[in-house]
């Protein structure tokens, strides 16, 4: 390897020929279907599958996969008779060392907000952070970040009970929530005067209209471009460990992830169960063809 990777394991093989493995990671099975099995992967890591036309490279990444145990199944898809493959593994254990490993390996990660620290449910937000450089402030279990067409980043600062905006100049402000837990009014009200409780998900329109998954209050709220917040709809029975949210621009349809259930909302039908049987839903989106795509973090899919 030409680039030193911190705590890296890798293995190289020629498709359908005996495995040639180095270090500790091993490719133990490679089938004609393109399915391969890698052993001795990191229990908390990222594996990158790479392809080359020669054993000396150049190597091109095919896909990244998270490893959560000592083995991992991958699929290379269609391959040619002279294709070479290798898998590189990177440990990304919780905390700053894992982040440092990612930076050292990929050299493309830059911190845009938050000064770091240990995981905690304590609210660390302070009034002095308003308007400060975003990388100098303390966030409290931020769960998702999205941007608008103007280059603003929006962060759901879950345990800080607020939505932060990182502006193009690198400063950060609160645009929704009081930074203290509560259940603010549903009727239109200045967004920074409406208490939220563990906001955990976001959806942002290109014009900056912001939709907030107000987790502990079981509500989806809408912040318009004038900074006014109102409740779009309430989820009966509440939202369970949800963070995935998508809202159509004309507000005629929305999807919400809620634990093992994907919920659908429309003004005419209200909230309905759209799909069930998941392990624990994470995020969701629509692909260019308009198909709904969800991540099931409980089932690692």
Mean pLDDT metric: 85
Q: Rounded to an integer, what's the Rg over CA atoms?
A: 22 Å
Order of helices and strands: EEEEEEEEHEEEEEEEEEEEEEEE
Number of strands: 23
Strand content: 35-45%
Shape call: globular
Distance between the termini: 30 Å
Q: What count of structural domains? A: 2
CATH architecture of the largest domain: 6 Propeller
Q: Kindly report the spatial arrangement of strands forming the biggest sheet.
A: 2-1-8-5-6
CATH topology of the largest domain: Neuraminidase
Instruction: Tell me about the largest β-sheet.
Output: 5 strands, antiparallel
For the record, what CATH class of the largest domain applies? Mainly Beta
Can you say what the CATH homologous superfamily of the largest domain is?
Answer: TolB, C-terminal domain
Commentary on this structure:
The protein has 1 helix and 23 strands. Strand 10 (153-157) and strand 11 form a beta hairpin. It is mostly beta strands. 4% of the residues lie in helices and 42% in strands. The strands form 6 sheets. Strands 2-1-8-5-6 form a 5-stranded antiparallel beta sheet. The protein has one helix spanning 96-106, and strands at residues 8-14, 19-21, 26-30, 35-39, 45-52, 60-67, 71-75, 84-91, 142-147, 153-157, 162-166, 172-176, 189-190, 199-204, 210-214, 219-223, 228-234, 245-247, 254-258, 261-266, 270-275, 281-286, 292-296. The model is unreliable at 1-23 (pLDDT under 50). The protein folds into 2 domains: 26-106; 141-296, 6 Propeller (Neuraminidase), CATH 2.120.10.
């Amino acid at each position: 390897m030409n680039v030193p990777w911190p705590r890296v394991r890798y293995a190289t093989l020629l498709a359908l020929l005996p495995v040639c493995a180095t270090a500790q990671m091993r490719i133990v099975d490679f089938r004609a279907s393109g399915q391969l099995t890698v052993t001795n992967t990191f229990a908390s890591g990222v594996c990158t599958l790479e392809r080359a036309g020669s054993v000396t490279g150049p190597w091109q990444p095919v896909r990244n996969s998270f490893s959560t145990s000592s083995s991992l199944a991958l699929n290379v898809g269609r391959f040619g008779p002279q294709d070479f493959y290798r898998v590189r593994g990177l440990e990304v254990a919780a905390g700053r060392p894992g982040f440092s490993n990612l930076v050292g390996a990929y050299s493309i990660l830059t911190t845009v907000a938050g000064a770091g620290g240990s995981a905690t449910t304590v609210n660390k937000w302070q009034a002095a952070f308003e308007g400060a450089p975003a990388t100098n402030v303390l966030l409290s279990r931020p769960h998702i970040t999205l941007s608008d067409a103007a280059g603003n980043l929006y962060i759901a600062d879950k345990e800080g009970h607020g939505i932060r905006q990182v502006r193009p100049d690198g400063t950060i402000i609160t645009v929704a929530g009081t930074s203290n837990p509560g259940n603010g009014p549903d009727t239109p009200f200045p967004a920074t005067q409406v208490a939220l409780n563990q906001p955990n998900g976001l959806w942002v329109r290109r014009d900056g209209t912001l939709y907030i998954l107000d987790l502990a209050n079981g509500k989806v709220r809408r912040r318009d471009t004038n900074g006014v917040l109102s409740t779009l709809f309430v989820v009966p029975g509440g939202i369970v460990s949800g963070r995935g949210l998508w809202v159509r621009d004309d507000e005629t349809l929305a999807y919400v992830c809620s634990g093992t259930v994907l919920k659908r909302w429309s003004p005419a039908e209200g909230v309905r169960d759209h799909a069930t049987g998941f392990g624990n839903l994470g995020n969701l989106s629509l692909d260019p063809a308009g198909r709904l795509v969800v991540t099931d973090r409980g089932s690692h899919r």
